[in-house]
Amino acid sequence: MRSVTEKEIRTSFVNCTKGEATRLAVPRDLAERPWDDLDFLGWRDPASTERAYLVTESGDGLVGVALRAARPTGQRRQSMCSLCLTSHSGGGVSLMTARKAGRNGQQGNSVGSYVCSDLACSLYLRGKKPVGPGGRLNESLSLAEKVERTMSNLTGFLDRVTA
Ligand SMILES: [Zn+2]
Question: What is the chain's alpha carbon radius of gyration, rounded to the nearest angstrom?
């Protein structure tokens, strides 16, 4: 994705109030992020174990969602990220819940998905971040096809947030 500024990030959130979007923790190292290798920007709030955020480009601009990561249950078994289909053990995948956008969210509705806890899906797909044994399926898909599948999974999740 193209590099984005803090201001763009703060105005991209679809499921936050303006106040929340103004206060939330945006990474301070935006200039050093590997934008060419990112399909979306995802990060955790260093001051809060629960808060996670994801921003991506969609047809008509940037779309950001605020997420709540469930506390790791301490399970050792592997679980799979529903976006990039990488498997991790030991809490490397978290159930992330997004409050729905607009009225639905105000009424307390949310949607959840299992996602890489560090939201580094793009780097796992590209082999830029190591994955444990059995973490990636042996597939004959090209990187472009894997990226396309990941983005289609992400779009599906964002559609559920905004539906
Ligand atoms: Zn992932």
Answer: 15
Quote the ligand 1 centre to 47 CA distance (angstroms).
22
Determine the distance separating the centroid of ligand 1 and the alpha carbon of 113, expressed in angstroms: 11
CA 144 – ligand 1 centroid, Å? 16
Q: What is the pTM of this model?
A: 0.94
Q: What is the pLDDT of residue 60?
A: 79
pLDDT greater than 80 at residue 72: no
Distance, in Å, from the CA atom of 163 to the CA atom of 156, rounded to the nearest integer, reads 10
Q: Which residues contact 144 (CB under 8 A, 6 or more apart)?
A: none
Distance (Å) from CA 125 to ligand 1 centroid: 8
Give the distance (Å) from ligand 1 centre to CA of residue 154. 10
Q: Is pLDDT above 70 for 74?
A: no
Query: What's the mean pLDDT when you consider all of the chain?
Result: 94
Distance 116 CA to ligand 1 centre (A): 4
CA-to-CA dists, residue 118 to 77, 82, 145, 163, angstroms: 18, 14, 22, 26
